[in-house]
Amino acid sequence: MNRWVLWVAQIPLVALALAPLASSVAARDFDTVVETTHRKVTWDDFKGKEFRGTRWNDGSWAHLASAMVIDSTRIEPRQAEGEEGWIAVLGRAGEVYAVMDKDMSGAAPGANSPELLAHEQLHFDITEAFSRRLTLKIAPLRGKGRDAASAVADLQAQLQAAYDAANVELLTYQNAYDSETRHGTRRKVQKKWSAKVDQLLADATTELEQARADGDD
Prior knowledge:
The protein has 217 residues and is an alpha+beta fold. It has 3 helices and 8 strands, in the order βββββββαβαα. A hairpin with a 6-residue loop joins β5 and β6. The N terminus is likely disordered.
């Protein structure tokens, strides 16, 4: 089992690619003291104490560190039917999760308003939407090679490429959100972004559910 992680915060960005994960841990079990899968968060989830003075060093008052995680993936190599060589597939449907790191998330003293929490929640929602879209992108990937090892390596490279491309797009989107809302301080713009992200998440959910329904037919 492999785990691809990119912690997406406002700024700076910390990347952890192809980090090993114990096979006994599933992504749906991430709701722990340190990490939680996508849900409504509270200020109690912001356990980090990395603020310099009263603000984060990018000028924001709070910071939610979220990541896209490809987890519960089991790459299975098999000989290609009717031709030479091997293929590698995701034997268990690869699913991408948005995860919040509580220890990397924090808020300045006194910065615990409902409005600011709603702004930070949207960062998590954006990561979840991109996670669902990435789930769709990696589902049809197939590795090919002359032997099992090369087929697996080919699929791993494709997964990494898809993950990296999605992260570039995600970071651009997150930065645009913070820039346009000025970290949630422009109330009217924040309201527009809330509607925009709600639609983004709804569309990603519909696309994923439709793909699963088509796969069950």
